[in-house]
Amino acid sequence: MTFPFDALRRWPDIEAPELVAADAADRLILDESASARAGLGAEEFVVIGDAYGALTLGAAAAGVTGIRVHQDPLTGEQALAANAAALGGAEAFRSLPLEPALVRGARVVLLRLPRSLDALDDIAGLIAAHAAPDVTVFAGGRLKHMTVAMNGVLGRRFARLDVTHARQKSRVLVAREPHDGVDPQPRRSEHDGLVVCAYGGAFAGSAIDIGTRLLLEHLPAAIDGDGMLVDLACGTGVIATRLALQHPSRRVHASDQSAAAVASARATVAANGVADRVDVVRDDLLSSLPAASADFVALNPPFHSGAAVTDLIAPRMFADAARVLPPGGELWVVWNSPLRYRPALERLVGPTRQIARNAKFTVTASVRR
Question: Where are the bilayer-spanning segments (predicted)?
Answer without folding.
Answer: none
